[in-house]
Amino acid sequence: MSNRAESVLVGLIGEGVMPSLTPPMHEREADVQGLRLLYRPIDLLELALPAAAVGDLLTAAQRLGFNGLNITHPCKQLVLGHLDEISDDAARLGAVNTVLIQDGRFIGHNTDFSGFGSALRDGLPDATLGRVVQLGAGGAGSAVAYALLKAGVTTLDLVDVDPARAAERAAELGELFPTAVVTPRTTAELSDIMHLADGLVHCTPIGMAAHPGLPLDIELLEPRHWVADIVYRPIDTQLVREARAKGCKVLDGGRMAVGQAADAFQLITGREADRDRMRAHFLELIAVEDAAAARAPELTKAGH
Ligand SMILES: NC(=O)C1=CN([C@@H]2O[C@H](COP(=O)(O)OP(=O)(O)OC[C@H]3O[C@@H](n4cnc5c(N)ncnc54)[C@H](O)[C@@H]3O)[C@@H](O)[C@H]2O)C=CC1
Ligand SMILES: O=C1C[C@@](O)(C(=O)O)C[C@@H](O)[C@@H]1O
User: Fold this and answer.
1) CA of 22 to the centre of ligand 2 (A)
2) Within-domain flag for 262
3) Ligand 1 neighbours (beta carbon < 6 A)
4) Does the CB atom of residue 29 touch ligand 2 within 6 A?
5) Are residues 13 and 55 in the same domain?
6) What does the alpha-carbon distance between residue 290 and residue 286 come to, in Å, rounded to a whole number?
7) Count of H helices and E strands in the chain?
8) For the Shikimate dehydrogenase substrate binding N-terminal domain, which residue ranges apply (predicted)?
9) Residue 304, in any domain of the structure
10) HSE-CB for 91 with a 13 A CA cutoff
11) Is 249 a catalytic residue?
12) Residue 191 belongs to a domain with what CATH number?
C-alpha cells in the first residue's frame, strides 16, 4: 500500500490510446529512477464513452488517487472547461495535454509545444530559425507552430490542404506573436516559398504506415534546409530518409514524442527525466513494433 506522496499513478485519456508508447516510457524512466509509478491508458473507445466524459473521468481520477493525467485527441480542448488553473502557454494555445491533480485541484499544462521545442533544441541545435515552412495545421501542428514561434521563428508559412484551417491558425498565431509574420499558404505555393525557407516542419499524417508517401515534391528540398518530421511510425519516414540522403539535417518525430513525455514526467513526478535514456527506450519500443509489423503487416495498428 502507498499514498499519493509515496508512489505515482498516471493515466492517459483519449480515443484509441491503447497502443500509446507514453505509458511504457514513463514507467521505464520511473523504474530506473527507483520511483514507483503506474501509467494506465484510459481509452474512451474501449469504455464506449464520448469525449464529453473527460470531466467525469477527471473527477474519478481525483477520487481514485491519480497524481496526473495526459489528455489526447479528442479531449485537449474539451478539458479546458474542467480545470482550476492553467499554465499561460496552454491557455494561449487553447489546448491541454497534461493535468496535475494536486490538493483536489486540476492544473492544466501543454507539453506538446514544450516537447517539440526541446526536441528542436536537442536534435537540431544549430538550425537557423528565421523562416520556416510548416505542412499541416491540425492539432499537433498548432502546438508545433506555437513552439516554432516561441523559439524565435520570425516568418512562418503555414500550408494545409484545408485552406480555411491554415487561415484560421495563421490568424490565431499572428495575434499571439504580433512581431512574427504568419501566412496561410496552399500546397500550390510550395515551390515559391521553399527556396526562401531555412527549414521545413512536417505535421500531416503523410508518411505514416497507413498514409505512405511524401508530403511534398522532394525536388523542393535543398541540402541547406533542415527538416523536422513529427510522424514517428515509422521513425524513418520517407521524408526523413530522402531529406537525409540529400544532406539535410533532420529531426525525426520520435524526438517530439519523447519530449512531450519527458516534460509531462517532470511536471507529474517533480523529477527530471533523462531524455537520452527515454529516447533509447522509445526507439527500442518502435523497433519491436516494426518487427511485429514485418511479420504480420495486416495487424499493424494505425496509431500516431
Ligand atoms: N511526434 C509526436 O509526438 C506526435 C506526432 N503526431 C503525428 O502528427 C500527425 C498529425 O497529427 P494531428 O495534427 O493530430 O492531425 P490532424 O488531423 O489534426 O491534422 C493534420 C492536418 O494535416 C493536413 N493535411 C493532410 N494532408 C496534407 C498535405 N498533403 N499537405 C498539407 N496539409 C495536409 C490536414 O488538413 C490537417 O489539417 C499524426 O498523423 C501523427 O503521425 C501527432 C501527435 C503527436
Ligand atoms: O497527443 C499526444 C500523444 C499521446 O497521446 C501518446 O499517445 O503518446 C500522449 C499525449 O501526452 C500527447 O499529447
Assistant:
1) 7
2) yes
3) 135-141, 159-162, 165, 187, 203-206, 208, 215, 230-232, 253, 256-257, 260, 304
4) no
5) yes
6) 6
7) 10, 12
8) 12-99
9) no
10) 7
11) no
12) 3.40.50.720
